[in-house]
Amino acid sequence: MLSRLRSLLYLLPQFWRMLFTRPVTVRYPFAPLKLPSYFRGKVTIDPELCRGCGMCARDCPAFALELERESRDNFRLIHYHDRCAYCGQCEASCNFGAIKLVNEFVPAAPQRDTLSRVMVRRDNEEA
Amino acid sequence: MTKITIPIGPQHPALKEPLSFLLTVEGEQILDSALRIGYVHRGLERICQNRNYVQNVHVVERVCGICSHIHTTTYCQGVEALLGLQVPPRALYLRTLLCELERIHSHLLWLGVLAEYIGFTTIFMYAWRDREIVLDIMEELSGGRVAHAANVIGGVSIDADEAHVASILDRLDVLERQIKLFLDLIRRERSFQARTRGVGHLSAEQIRRYCVVGPAARASGVDVDLRRDAPYAAYKWLNFQVITAEEGDVWARTMVRVLETIESLHMCRQLLTELPAGPLTVRAPRRVPPGEVVSRTEAPRGELIYYIRSDGSDRPARVKIRTPTLTTLITLHDQLAGVHTADVPVVLAGVDLCIACADR
Predict the structure, then answer these.
(1) What is the mean pLDDT of residues B79-99?
(2) Where are chain B's structural domains?
(3) CA Rg, chain B, in Å?
(4) Positive/negative CA dihedral, B184, B188, B189, B191
(5) Could you report the predicted ipTM of this complex, rounded to two decimals?
(6) Is the CB of B189 less than 8 angstroms away from the CB of A10?
(7) What's the pLDDT at A7?
(8) Which residue range is the domain that position A37 belongs to?
(9) What's the gap in Å between the CA of B177 and the closest CA on chain A?
(10) Which of A15, B11, B161, B164 has its CA 20 to 30 A from that of B3?
C-alpha cells in the first residue's frame, strides 16, 4: 500500500518545481529566434570572388546550383532555393571563399518558379 | 469466438511509423500478424550511384531522420578505407562525440514515444523537453538539429573551442540529473512496469536465430556491441561499459536504453576532456581506386552495415545499406503472437522501429 502511494507521489516535487519555472518553449515568431553561429541558412555568393569554376555546382547533392557558361568571362551562376537542402557542401567546395550560408531564414514564396535566383552574372566580352 | 482481421497502418494513431499490419484477433488476443513495409522507399541506394562520393555524404545523411550522423560516419569510414586515408585523431573524437550525442537524443526520443504509447504523457513531455538540450548542443556544434553535415571524407567539418567544450560539459550535467530522474521513475513507477513487464518477450535463442542487433539483443542477454567488439572511430580510446539485461521484454529494453544514455553521457565527457589537438581533415582524392569495402558501426538501434563498391571513377558502383531495424522487424511476428490488442503499440514502440531506415 505504502509503495503504491509512493509511486503515485513520486513525481509531485517535479510538478511543484515546474510550476515556478519559465516555459521551455520559445516565443518564435513573436520574438526573434536565437540561432547558433554555425547555422546553415540562406546561401549567399559574393560575385566579386566567384570565378565560375563550377566546383559548387559539381558537388551540390540536390543539383540546386547551375553554372551556365558561354566563355571564360561570360557565365551565370543560378541558385534554386526550392531544390536546396542547405547542407553547406557548396561552401565547403568553394576554393575562393565566395559562398557563405548565412544565419538567416529563407522566406517562403507563393510560387515555385520565383525561387531561382541568378547569384553571379559576368558578361565581360573577351578581348 | 469468431476471428476478425484488423488492418493497422500505414496511417494510424497508434503507429507513427509508416508500416502496415494485418492482425488476426480472436476477442482481445492476437493470433497472427502479417507485416507489410516499403511505404517510404525512396531508392536512395540507386540515387547514390548517380552522384559522386562527396555528394553521397549528404544523400546518406537523409536515410534516417533520427540517426543521420551515424549513416555518414559509416559511409565516410568505408570510403576512407577504400582510399587508405588516416583520419586525424581530433576528427575521430569529434565524430564519435556527435555519434554519442545522437545516441542520447535517439534513446530519449524513443523513451518519449514509448511513454506516450502506454499513456504516460508526463515522461513523454519531460523526455522530449530534455532531448532539446542534446539537440541544442548538436545544433551549436554543426549548424543543424538533425542534418548535421558534420562528416566529410577524410575528417569532419565541425570544431569546438575550449569555451564551447566547457559550456557543453555544464549542460551534460543538467541532462544527467534529468536522465537519473527518468531511471528512478521507471524503476519505481508501478503503472509503467504493469504495462511493460512481460510484454514483447524475446529469448536469447530467438535473438540469435533472427540475428537481432542493438539494444533489443542486449536486453535479452546477448552481449553484442560493435563499439567494444570491433572498435571504430575513437571508441578504442574510450572507457565504457556495455549494458545488458536478462528479461528480454519491453521493460528490459527500456532499462538498457536509459542506462546506455547515461553511459553515453560519460563517453561524451571523456571525449570532450581528452579532445586532442591537431588537424580536422586530410585531403581526400575525388577518384576512388577500384575495390569493395564493408563498413560497420553501432547505430543507436544496433549494427549498421554499409557495403561500398568502387570501379575507379568518382561515383560508387554500388552502395548497399543494411539498417538495424530490418532485423527487429522480422521478430514482430513472434512478439505480437498472443498479446492483447491494447499492448500492440507497446510492442511496436518497444523495439524502436525506424521504417525510414529500413525502407531507405
Answers:
(1) 90
(2) 43-328
(3) 21
(4) positive
(5) 0.80
(6) yes
(7) 63
(8) 33-106+114-123
(9) 12
(10) B11
